[in-house]
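Researcher: Please predict.
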Amino acid sequence: MFIFCEFMPNFVPLLHQCLHFLLPNSCLWCQLPVQQAQAQICQYCNPALPRLSPAVPLDNALLLPQVSRGLKPRYFDALYSLSWYQNPWSHWIVAWKFNQDLACGALLCQQLAAAAAGYLPPPDAAVCYVPISKTRLKERGFNQAEQLAHALAAALQLPLLALFASKKGIKHQVGLSRAQRNANLRRQFSLLPNNRLPQHLLLVDDVITTGATVNQLTLLLKKQGVQTVDVWTLAVTSAKRQRRYSAAPSSSPDAESKALAK
């Protein structure tokens, strides 16, 4: 048993290579076989993915007026996001979040980790994530923000902190206006006790729409002495699309995709 455990770190990559040779994954965009083991998108589709800023793969999205106009008031200091909320990102996010498509989840975690390669965090920084209630966790089976945070923390070699608790009985945020989201979030979150907070935190969520959730969490952190909070997400909505989103009457999970795709 000891010998087997000793060789496991070398055995697992070899097993992935064998499985890839026999049965390669299909690209989640074009459906053709991928070229690398454990990849979920092929080498041709990956550079063609729509990005928030084609010139700069990862930059502070708050520098874009069409983003910053829709996120007022704003208490966090920077926003790093891979893309606008659009296809194929929106399709993958909804498939992972509401249909438990784990291949889409693996792809999105890989994309966030790859984008972080050009980011240099301060030495005292740490990563945290938006929580979900125990009821929501039981329904979904996982917290997508936590999984993204794991990938980001590993890529940046930063500690991952579980800082927040979320109360049960809070209805879905999808389909709610800014005012409804703020009311829905009031008193929803609290800081877990016995946590030493660093001065700089990277707060991870999957999508930022009105900014209500990350604003509430940022206020909690800054009241406890945190100086800087950078928000990291897969996608962000423009101010124009936020108005469409707020007007969407449906509160079903599909509303998040349908309203923002218009």
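Model: The longest strand covers residues 228-236.
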